[in-house]
Design goal:
Rossmann fold, elongated, alpha/beta, 285 residues, single chain
Length: 285
Amino acid sequence: MTEVGHDNARAAAELKPTRLIVGIGASAGGLDAFRAFFARMPAETGMAFVLVQHLDPNYESSLVAIVGGYTGMPVHLAEDGVFVCPNQVYIIPPDAILTIRDGVLHLTRPAPPAARRTSINTFLASLAQDQGENAVGIILSGFGSDGALGVVAIKEHGGLTLSQAEFDHHAKSGMPQSAASSGFVDHVLSVGQMPAAVLDYQRHRKMSDSVKGRDGVRQDLAAHLVTICAVLQSRLGRDFSQYKPGTLMRRIQRLMQVLQTDEVSRYIEQLRTEPNEAEHLLREF
């Protein structure tokens, strides 16, 4: 490719809109959660949704028809080699392991029994690796702990993580509670609140992305990094001034995106005044 061609490709990448891919994991009892989620999620968001549910390998799944009744988006049974497109829903078929690479779904069939038990972790980990901060991981109701390691991967790569709440904003027992107990879930919410939370995050991401440099970091963060480290040292007695600036700025940026804080100066004020905010950033580091 010529130098001009490289410049045009970079310019096109910089102008590309934020495209979130939302991975949703569930097990037994997931149907009610799917209905509550998709009944409140608009059909034209620019996001794509991939549902990974624990399914009986010996029976055909009716999830495509069921979920299709709750949303105006096209709903597909995931196929090997299919590129994930915006405003579409993809559902794992029975007896399969699903991953994503370069935005393309990959199926492994038949799925070994042990692999089926961790199919949500497998997909979310691949989603985190593939999409980075454009990945969203959601854990809905189900037995066991599948999904907990997946949300760790999503958060470590800069994405957003949600877990289903009981009636009182404590995580629902089973998979949601296991995920929340990892300490890597950004928000524990009722399923009905999740669509609004993801849409708000997407709106803030679009604003945040508009001020990022080619390295993917907000251009206004570097000037405030010394102040943020000084606040952390004052609040926590921890000195981060010798850490790699790029790593620190990416973690600060991720937390600002989760909190939907637009201005770095406003975030610094939160660090100074909110009782737990410095601890949150410490955990982020």
